Amino acid sequence: MNDGDIEQRADELELEASIREKVRVDPHELERMFSELPALIAWASERGARATDRHLKAKAAVKRLRSLLWLEARNDLQASGEKPTEKLIDATVDADVDKRLEPFLEEERLAEVEAVRAKGVLISLQAKKDALVSIGANLRAELERDPVIRERAAGGRFRSEREAQSGG
């Protein structure tokens, strides 16, 4: 493992820790988490869009280069006197995945991985939203069953109504 690989792995671990923190649900910090969630979903959506764009561009580049290699293989086979069939040309291109195509294939693979990862983060944030809503609903239900809180809420409501009626 060289220095570049170690640095890349460290970056990946840092990103994983950051994502893990973003999708974590803490039932004791519901208000903060609810307020942060729209920005996190927007961040994940933008990240997913960029990753998808990168993947589609890389996929198109591979397709273009493969087409060029296909034409070169066909021309080379014709020049050598062979009758180039589609299967023979495809086999020639596949057998000779030359150095021009390898970096494009690697870029396509990495872009696809990033797009899948971004989609997973967005799905996790949506699950976090559902969990927060569920926890909030359960807390409200518990509070509604608490007689002290019910009495305070009722007293406050009656007080507000009395103040409104008395004009002050």
List keywords for this structure.
168 residues; 5 helices; 86% helix; 0% strand; elongated
Main pleated sheet: none
Mean residue pLDDT: 83
Structural class: mainly alpha
The total count of strands amounts to 0
Taking the alpha carbons of the first and last residues, their distance comes to 75 Å
Q: Tell me the number of helical segments per DSSP (H or I, 4 or more residues long).
A: 5
In the predicted model, the low-confidence regions spanning at least 5 consecutive residues are none
Radius of gyration: 29 Å
H/E element order: HHHHH
**Residue share in helix:** over 70%
Q: Give the DSSP E fraction (strand runs of 2 or more residues).
A: under 5%
The general outline is elongated
Structure commentary:
Helices cover 86% and strands 0% of the residues. It contains 5 helices and no strands. Helix 2 runs antiparallel to helix 4.
Summarize the structure.
This protein is an all-alpha fold and 168 residues long. It is 86% helix and 0% strand.
How would the blueprint of this fold be written?
Blueprint: H1 3-23, H2 30-79, H3 86-95, H4 102-145, H5 147-166
Helix pairs in contact: 2-3, 2-4
